Amino acid sequence: MAARTSISPGLGITIGLLGAISLGLFVVTIILYGDNIKYVKQIDEADQNNRDFVREVDRADPAIQGDLRNARSAGVSLVRYLSDSLNDTFKKVTGNENDRLAELETKTQSIDGASTNSMLGLVQRQLNQITTLERQLADAEAARLAAQTNLQREADRVTALQAQQTETVNGLQATIAELQDAVDGYRAGFQSTEQQYIATINQLRADLEASEQNSRTQIRELQQQKLLLEDQVSALQLAGRGESLKPKDEHSLVDGTVANTNPNESEVYVSIGRRDKVVLGMTFAIYGDSTQIRPDEDGNYPQGKGAVEVINVGETSSRCRVLFERAGNPIVPGDVIANAAYDPNKVYKFLIAGNFDTNGDGRRTPGERTEITAFVEEWGGTTTEELEGDVDFVVLGEPPILPPQPNINSPIEIVEIYIRRENELNRYNDLLDKAQRTSIPVLNENRLYTLIGRVRSRTR
User: Is residue 357 part of a domain?
Assistant: First the structure.
């Protein structure tokens, strides 16, 4: 027990010393570790600052090594050396040591409006331009000297021409003086002759004006006579209507059929005759069937396949000659016949107005309206002058044409004719308007001829 007790204090002291030493070492380690971290951070910052100015890869560049040696010789850093060199360079190039590449590019562009890769290139270009300008200047100077020589030659030539001109002018002046004397003599004689001619021309002009005035008067009188004669012709046509008429025909209703044909003689037989009030000269339009006799949306009726004229009337049938027959579509038995003005069982009433061309001479006159009226009445129809409720058809020719409006000195007959024509035109327009509003069928001359199968001759 005693021995065990005597060792324990020494061991405790040793352990205590070791603990104290360990604690001291730990504290020192902590302190050194903290300083080490601070130093490492400072080294890293220094390395970063160093890299901002120069990189390891740049240190091997021979040019940078040369700049480094020059900086050491000058006793400054490489950055300061390069900055001072750059400032000196831009001061010599642009005049401002604070300029850099962007300012240099801007200033070089302002010289000739184009950028360049180097100052030497810019200088070289300017030198080339100077050389070109010098060559152009030399050429211009040579041209100037040549022009000056030519100018002198031209001046000498002009001087010679002026001398020649002076000589020629002097000669011409002498000739002009002689001619002037002759002209004065001719002028005196010409003026006398001119006065005679002027007097003759004035007399001829006066005679021409009088003749022209007389011709105008005669033309006006002839026009008035023509108007009076036309009015008289219309009255005579009205008085003798029907004396030289050709029969007329109608359109929409079927009046009979083709009973037989005789192609060799261009004749056909129709199924109506004397008991159906058929008369010689009556014409009929030929259609394939009754459905073809219908007006289109514009009121125009289709032309038939042919047309015939009655040349012999029997009791129940009639023989007709073929007026025309459409090629490729001959008239055959069973075809239907139609005449707008004819119906044995009904008396159609027509109102006829306007100017017509029944003789085919190309002139539409009010007097030829009497032929249309005679056709209708000869074939059993009636006519009226008023648009009444029992009118079946309105046949309108061309509108009446107004003659020139008479003046205050016109004969009373001319004034009366003008008033009558004006009233006829107003009546014509009124009839057309009323017929359209009351849906009464309106036929013009061509539509009427188509419906009755009439073929009129052309004398023109």
Answer: yes
